[in-house]
Amino acid sequence: MKWNVALLQMDVAFGQPGKNVETVQRMVRQLSESGEKTDVILLPELWDTGYDLDRLSEIADQNGERATALFKEMASQLNAHVIGGSVADQREGCSFNTTYVVDRQGTVAGTYSKAHLFRLMQEEKHFAAGDSPGLYLLENQIVASVICYDIRFPEWVRLHALEGARVLFVSAQWPHPRLNHWRQLLISRAIENQMYVVACNCVGEGGGSTFCGHSMVVNPWGEILAEGMQQEEIIRAEIDLSLVDEVRKRIPVTVDRRPDLYRL
Ligand SMILES: O=C(O)CCC(=O)C(=O)O
């Protein structure tokens, strides 16, 4: 199974969902006009509101309805699966930082709410944490998604790999000065779990942060297949899922684990 992935590394306008929807639509038109086949589209974290958390009651997406309507349009326009970055969605009286996944048939294939909230940006004051893994089936392949700070928790990503995930999609608003951490963590998660890591960051400024771009596609051997710069752009790569089996066979890390020693 081979997928052409496209990462929409957008400049997220702080607190302006309408403007951000226009940016996504413009980038999708660009993909469509390129004539190149796209199988999976990935967006950044909080791509519609940015980190404008003080205005969530005004600008958050109720039950993810605004986002899923847009993703269904995108899925049908490009005949592609949409891993919808994340949006601030309000449900059951709480706000969550949530990924909605819409498959190419236009069905919501799954949702994931960020499990590890980032205190440095006071996320825990505004969001409730999710407590379920982000595992989905796309064309019978198990894939996973996590959000930004989650990649600092190798045991969380490992859990997804042990459940059979072959690709990890990461959506982020990762700021300077920690570009070095972003790159090293993504490459490490790919090598240790022998999976593809497809990670979409944003660029631009918001809430006092400058986001560092460098969205990346890393293969299960830790090689970078594509990497963005610090500008608004679409990053594309082809991922061949058979390489996951090959690498896992060559060095059978999962078989050689000693959970009896470290209980993880
Ligand atoms: O872990 C980091 O350094 C960045 C995390 C972050 O910005 C986030 O989770 O929103």
From TrEMBL:
Cross-referenced InterPro entries: C-N_Hydrolase, C-N_Hydrolase_sf, UPF0012_CS
Pfam families membership: CN_hydrolase (PF00795)
Residues annotated as domain CN hydrolase: 3-241
PROSITE patterns: CN_HYDROLASE, UPF0012
Keywords from the named record: Hydrolase
GO molecular-function terms, A-Z: hydrolase activity
SUPFAM superfamilies: Carbon-nitrogen hydrolase
Keyword field contains rRNA processing: no
Domain of life: Bacteria
Keyword Hydrolase attributed: yes
PANTHER family in the record: DEAMINATED GLUTATHIONE AMIDASE, NITRILASE-RELATED
Recorded family membership: Belongs to the carbon-nitrogen hydrolase superfamily. NIT1/NIT2 family.
Protein name: Carbon-nitrogen family hydrolase
Source lineage: Bacteria, Bacillati, Bacillota, Bacilli, Bacillales
